[in-house]
Design brief:
The complex is a heterodimer of chains A (116) and B (109).
Chain A (H helix, E strand, L loop, with lengths): L3 E3 L3 E4 L5 E7 L5 E7 L6 E6 L6 E2 L6 E7 L2 E6 L8 E8 L11 E2 L3 E5 L1
Chain B lengths: L2 E3 L3 E5 L4 E8 L6 E6 L6 E6 L3 E5 L2 E6 L4 E6 L8 E8 L5 E3 L3 E6 L1
Parallel strand pairs in B: 2-11
Antiparallel strand pairs in B: 1-3, 3-8, 4-5, 4-9, 6-7, 7-8, 9-10, 9-11
The chains are: A mainly beta (116), B mainly beta (109).
């Protein structure tokens, strides 16, 4: 079974703090993704990566950065946390390629971040 | 713009059948996915469709009409454990998944 592990289930941070969210997958997937999930909205893509050291902006990258130094690990960084970044953050991974099966995304359990 | 619409919430009775609809307008289409997400948990993959028609997987089936930009997820013999949110997502021309807001399904005994 594919396993995507997020380092924390719950985090509480103060406004202005630097926040690191870690994600590790164990299936040698090329693609990794960071989403945020808010009530009434679909999953919104923050950043994704299709290879080590490669990153692409998603729909809402402002206020975030990412790091992928190893294939299995993808980190999301909030440089200076703000209250509007309070949300559920979900990490996902998938294989590279155009077939439907390769585009199935496997998700971690999520990190619920509260910024006070 | 890209848009995926699903009902916000539905209620059904244990043992019954429920159909969750999804309509989409996206820049290109390379397939449609359904995911299940229990409260506080990760979304998990249920099914995908790329051709028109019905795909059956046990108690769950998914239908696609590309000409109408429409899909539905059909759940039969509902069980209490089916209470969850169901997410519809479309793989667009850039092979990016575009997500609907999800339908919260409440099962009553």
């Amino acid at each position: 079974d594919v396993k995507v592990t997020q380092s924390s289930r719950y985090l509480v941070k103060r406004t202005g703090e630097k926040v690191f969210l870690e994600c590790v997958q164990d299936m040698d997937h090329e693609n990794m993704f960071w989403y945020r999930q808010d009530p009434g909205l679909g999953l919104r893509l923050i950043y994704f990566s299709y290879d080590v050291k490669m990153k692409e902006k998603g729909d809402i990258p402002e206020g975030y950065s990412v790091s992928r130094e190893k294939k299995e690990r993808f980190s999301l960084i909030l440089e200076s946390a703000s209250t509007n970044q309070t949300s559920m953050y979900l990490c996902a991974s998938s294989l590279e390629g155009q077939g439907l099966a390769k585009n199935i995304q496997y998700f971690g359990a999520g990190t619920r971040l509260s910024v006070l | 713009g890209q848009n995926i619409d699903q009902p916000t919430e539905m209620t059904a009775t244990e043992g019954a059948i429920v159909q969750i609809n999804c309509t989409y307008q996206t820049s290109g289409f390379n397939g449609l996915f359904w995911y299940q997400q229990h409260a506080g948990e990760a979304p998990t993959f249920l099914s995908y469709n790329v051709l028109d028609g019905l795909e059956e997987k046990g108690r769950f089936s998914s239908f696609l009409s590309r000409s109408k930009g429409y899909s539905y997820l059909l759940l039969k013999e509902l069980q209490m454990k089916d209470s969850a949110s169901y997410l519809c997502a479309v793989l667009d021309s850039n092979y990016q998944l575009i997500w609907g807001a999800g339908t919260k399904l409440i099962i009553k005994p």
